[in-house]
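New to this. Help decode both lines:
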Amino acid sequence: MDCGVRLHLAPMYILGIESSCDETGVAVVQAQASGTPALLGAALYSQIAMHQDFGGVVPELASRDHIQRVLPLTEQALGEAGLRLQDIDLIAFTRGPGLAGALLVGAGVASGMAMGLNIPSVGMHHLEGHLLSPFLSQDPPEFPFVALLVSGGHSQLMRVDAVGQYVLLGETIDDAAGEAFDKSAKVMGLGYPGGPALAALAEQGNAQAFALPRPLLHSGNLDFSFAGLKTAVMVQHRKLGEQPTQQQLRDLAASTQAAIVEVLVKKSLRALKDSGLSRLVVAGGVGANRALRAQMNAACAKVQARVHYPELHLCTDNGAMIAMAAALRWQAGLMPQAQPALAQGLDRSFHVRPRWPLDAIDSISNQ
């Protein structure tokens, strides 16, 4: 990778902190002036068990738990990397999008540690972290590519020409794919988190059992809509009566998953065709879905396109993707404030951006 401005010839050790929702993640990445940055250590804590009784994420509880977890996880990640906190050159944190209180925990801890160490801190875009997370995999992509970002709160197709060069091709106009999984699972009484539970149930079901809609599949554009599918699942579930059989639930889960996956696959293939590109990246929590991966692999093979994913354990929110995004931005010369020589006199103020479109990520700064 041509890194442009060479800001720091020695290895750069970057600590990444992710706290946007219900996972606390910390990781250490080593970056050189060129070449793929290396993940040295990572630690992650999921709050799923804490939120299960409430059927979803409780923002206040999430924020309080991040406070308890972030420093022990930092020690764990540093220990795995064989480094001390004093060895870190830059601290990256998730600025947004996400839950405001949860974001403030990571931002405050990162900025405080950076001030104490007299090193820079920088706020990163959560979705850019997901988008660039496949660079941590054994099969990293090459630019340019089309990216499908699919998670609980986001469904987007982007054209990615280089680090920081993103063009929005299409996005959801209502519920995201992950929301469709979770809300449909809730209708079926599968609990929280619903998406993985529905996917597991779907493995034993008949995907053709129920004729569910494929919203906007033939719209002629690359936008998504899954709210209508969720409503159709609710209507179908009611038709099954108060006590549907286990096989009926399996079939409904399989049919629901099939509808979501078909839309994601066909829209992604259309984006490749419209852009003239032959490389696709699938990232975000829904990117771990096995049915999606299998059908996307088959569809891309038919059109001789390459598809790349992050490793399964890096599909969920994590600190490694935040540190990697910071490393790649630094290599590309897009982060001049990361120069250690500039640490003296840095503005230590910070803010978070709970709503922050990826195509509006003009620059990464603390202003």
Remarks:
- The chain has a mean pLDDT of 92.
- The first strand starts at residue 12 and ends at 18.
- Residues 12-132+315-360 form a domain with the Nucleotidyltransferase; domain 5 fold (CATH 3.30.420.40).
- The CA atoms of residues 183 and 323 lie 31 Å apart.
